[in-house]
Design brief:
Helix content is 52%, strand content 20%. By secondary structure, it is α/β, with parallel strands linked by helices.
Length: 334
């Protein structure tokens, strides 16, 4: 549900009901639909021209648009195309209202971006039934998008960045914030460009992954003492023009391991550093020298680690850390 000022105000007035934009140049048609929708609990906006419809949609971001196909000036087909071309309104379902029942006109409505159509004269009960179906679908799509976004953000938080690449053109169509940073650092590229090495690897292994379900070997991009490991996660979409692949990447380095331990074990950055060097077999004296502090300070940090992990010994703390590192970064050599 959109939260632009106008949309928020309209929904507050309508008890947060779905917001419907009706577009028709015939006042009688608007009146019939407006009354039926209002009685059914919807918040209603009206527009009497294509220009006005585009303006209303941009300002209010309705949940659904009921759109007259034939209007003077900008007709309904062009309105739909423009709404779908704008990222801010592309997700809004459009139901065409048309008196033209020839197949070519109905096909044109769907090709312009409509999800459905109703024929004139308008039957309010039919419109309400069709609307309800598409509003439910839109709600599910928004919920799925939110859940996917939450999952991707969680991956980023634990150091697992992800991107989506479309084949055959090889365009990078989506990436998390961490993925953007990693690709810039390791490959010196920005979306929509997919790094050549990654694209070559994907094109080589995607056919077997698609047809046989075979997971390809990970790709490693090395930079000094660190490396970027990439795995082909799954196919996320397919149509007549190509398909889309999600790739999960992970930076393998001391710093990345320490950050992952800090997040997953709920340690401070310094506590995670101390525990990391404990895993590496270092004494408190060694750790103090590495971190530029005293052995006593290293010991105090380690005691707080014991409390947070629920352990009592150095060996037990190292065991918990090793188990978590192997879960988060199986390629890392301890």
């Amino acid at each position: 549900m959109d939260t632009t000022p106008l949309a928020k105000t309209l929904r507050e007035q309508g008890a947060n009901s779905d917001l419907v934009l009706i577009v028709d140049d015939v006042p009688d048609n608007l009146a019939v639909l407006h009354d039926a929708l209002d009685e059914s609990g919807y918040t209603v906006l009206v527009a009497t021209s294509g220009e006005q419809a585009l303006q209303r949609a941009a300002q209010a971001r309705p949940d659904i648009v009921l759109l007259d196909a034939m209007m003077p000036g900008i007709d309904g087909f062009e309105v739909a195309r423009r709404l779908k071309a704008d990222a801010a309104t592309a997700h809004i379902p459009i139901v065409f209202m048309t008196g033209l029942t020839e197949t070519e006109h109905l096909v044109a409505a769907l090709e312009a971006g409509g999800v459905d159509y109703v024929t004139k004269p308008i039957k309010p009960k039919e419109v309400l039934a069709r609307m309800n179906v598409h509003l439910q679908g839109a709600r599910r799509a928004r919920q799925d998008a939110r859940q996917a976004g939450q999952a991707r953000n969680a991956l980023d938080a634990f150091g697992y960045a992800s991107i989506t690449v479309r084949l055959p053109e090889g365009r990078l169509i989506w990436q998390t914030a961490l993925a953007r940073d990693l690709l810039q650092r390791y490959c010196d590229t920005r979306a929509p460009e997919t790094p050549p090495a990654i694209l070559e690897w994907l094109r080589r292994h995607a056919p077997d992954a698609r047809q046989k379900g075979i997971e390809p070997p990970a790709l490693s991009v090395v930079q000094g003492a660190s490396s970027l490991s990439l795995r082909l996660h799954r196919q996320t979409g397919q149509d007549d023009d190509g398909d889309e692949w999600m790739i999960v990447m992970r930076e393998i380095s001391d710093t990345a391991v320490i950050e992952a331990m800090s997040l997953s074990l709920k340690l401070t950055a310094r506590e995670a550093e101390v525990l990391y060097w404990v895993v590496k077999g270092k004494t408190n004296k060694d750790i103090g020298e590495i971190l530029g502090s005293s052995p006593a300070t290293a010991k105090k940090h380690l005691e707080r680690v014991y409390v947070k992990l629920g352990v009592e010994t150095r060996t037990a703390a190292a065991g918990v850390a090793i188990k978590r590192i192997r879960e988060l970064q199986p390629q890392f050599e301890i």
